[in-house]
C-alpha cells in the first residue's frame, strides 16, 4: 500500500533562509474529509432512519462529534476508519490500526467515552472531558464546499448543513 503526499517548497532568496516545507498527506486528508462527510450525513437522518423506529440523532451531539473530529485532526491523530450512529442515538468515531481498535463515543455535549481494545490485553475504557464548547445554534453545522454549479463564478461556496 502506498501513500501519496504533496510537498510544496518556497525559497526566499532575499533573506537567504532555508526552504520552508509544508507537507500534506493526501490520503489522510481524504479520510478525514470522508469522516466529516459521514457525520454531516448522520446529522440529516430523520426518525426511523434504521427502518426499526430509531429516533433522529441529536444534531447538537453530532456537532460535538464533528468539532472533536476537527480537534483530533489538528492534534495529529491518524484519521478514523468510520463514523457511526447507534439506534439508541450515540455517535461514535472508530479506528482500527494494526489489529488495535479504538472508539470515541459521545455520551453528551461535553464527554466522550474512549474504548481501546488490543489483542492479548484487557479492553480499556476512559471518559474524556471534551476541550470544546458545547454546540450552540445556529453557528454550528455549516461547512465550506466548492461551488459545483458555477465554476469560475465569484461564489464563496459556503453552504449551511441545515
Give the secondary structure arrangement, pairings included.
Elements: E1 5-10, E2 20-25, H1 26-43, H2 59-75, E3 82-85, E4 91-97, E5 100-106, E6 111-117, E7 124-129, E8 142-144, E9 158-160
Antiparallel strand pairs: 1-2, 3-4, 4-5, 5-6, 6-7, 8-9
Can you give a write-up of this model?
With 162 residues, the protein is an alpha+beta fold. It has one domain. It has two helices and nine strands. α1 (26-43) packs antiparallel against α2. It is globular, with a radius of gyration of 19 Å.
Task: Tally the structural domains.
Answer: 1
Low-confidence stretches: 9-13, 138-162
Portion of residues within helices: 10-25%
Mean pLDDT: 79
Distance between the termini: 38 Å
User: Tally of extended strands?
Assistant: 9
Structural class: alpha+beta
**Count of helical stretches:** 2
Q: Main β-sheet, in a few words?
A: 5 strands, antiparallel
Q: What share of the residues does DSSP label as strand, in percent? A: 25-35%
**H and E order:** EEHHEEEEEEE
Question: How large is the radius of gyration?
Answer: 19 Å
Principal-axes geometry comes out as globular
Strand arrangement within the widest β-sheet reads 3-4-5-6-7
Compact summary:
With 162 residues, this protein is an alpha+beta fold.
Features:
single chain, 162 residues, alpha+beta, five-stranded antiparallel beta sheet, 2 helices, 22% helix, disordered C terminus
Amino acid at each position: 500500500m502506498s501513500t501519496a503526499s504533496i510537498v510544496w517548497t518556497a525559497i526566499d532568496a532575499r533573506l537567504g533562509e532555508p526552504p520552508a516545507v509544508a507537507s500534506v498527506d493526501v490520503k489522510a486528508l481524504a479520510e478525514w474529509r470522508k469522516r466529516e462527510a459521514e457525520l454531516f450525513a448522520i446529522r440529516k437522518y430523520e426518525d426511523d432512519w434504521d427502518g426499526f423506529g430509531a429516533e433522529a440523532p441529536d444534531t447538537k451531539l453530532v456537532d460535538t462529534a464533528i468539532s472533536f473530529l476537527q480537534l483530533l485532526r489538528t492534534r495529529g491523530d491518524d484519521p478514523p476508519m468510520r463514523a457511526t450512529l447507534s439506534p439508541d442515538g450515540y455517535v461514535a468515531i472508530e479506528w482500527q490500526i494494526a489489529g488495535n481498535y479504538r472508539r470515541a463515543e459521545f455520551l453528551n455535549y461535553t464527554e466522550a467515552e474512549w474504548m481501546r481494545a488490543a489483542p492479548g490485553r484487557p479492553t480499556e475504557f476512559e471518559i474524556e472531558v471534551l476541550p470544546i464548547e458545547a454546540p450552540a445554534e445556529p453557528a454550528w453545522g455549516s461547512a465550506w464546499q466548492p461551488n459545483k454549479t458555477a465554476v469560475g463564478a465569484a461564489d464563496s461556496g459556503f453552504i449551511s448543513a441545515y
